[in-house]
């Protein structure tokens, strides 16, 4: 509600953030792809942002994200918690394209790449017509150890801002993740930022809600497809969850038989925080692959397999160290860096 001067809680809060900070105002305008004068009008209360810009603002000013969400909802209604509308099913053209790509692919890698590109591109367009605040990731089961499968690893991700278009630092997801819960239960799992169980689930940086669906074939599991949103309760509408489940069903077309495993092999372990994992992978992953390939006279592909195996075990040990500290009541220290060996 506006006061006599036309100011609203939203415009007043924007003024407190940017009225003396021209550089910040310019940065926010660039982030939202609007003119600086447009942001000035929002601050003065002489015009209101379009819905697409209201939804982007919390991500554009992440240090004040929660306060922005509160004043936006106070001023404009519960606009940031609205779910997808008008989405009911995957178009039949997508099914046709996926089947044609699978039939014409020359090898397993090409089939996976082409089919997942088709699925991810359509999913992002269907679920976020505004091209903002959504990410889709496929995680596959890591190869079994002697005592079973310890984690899943991110294989492919596509996203809209604030997520990057794709990620190179592919993390390991274990028993404390939503992906892990979907894998173990072999059922769809939904998470919201206001859930009581937040502390029990490893959350990515921008996630406020997520839907994870296992990728199954004949009772065997290959991985989990997860869609993440910056919006609270994005998956409140069952139709939105159903369309994610359809994309997970299509994912099975991209995979070969050897990628599917019985659920009895799952012995998922805790893994370190995602941010720490990504920093560690960015720091050392490629150099370790190159060094291992050179030292053992093998291809980069084979070296990458062994480095993934080694880092999975190292990350397990790091997570175990952190959990042990917590159980003993010690303050949780920062995760340690792993030496390149």
UniProtKB/TrEMBL annotation:
What range does the record give for the signal peptide?
A: none
Q: Where is the GAF domain?
A: 139-255
Write down the Gene3D superfamilies for this protein, in alphabetical order. 3.30.450.40, lambda repressor-like DNA-binding domains
A Pfam family reported for this protein in Swiss-Prot or TrEMBL: GAF
Q: Which InterPro entries match?
A: GAF, GAF-like_dom_sf, Lambda_DNA-bd_dom_sf
Q: Which GO terms describe its molecular function?
A: DNA binding
Official protein name in the record: GAF domain-containing protein
Q: Report the source organism.
A: Dictyobacter vulcani
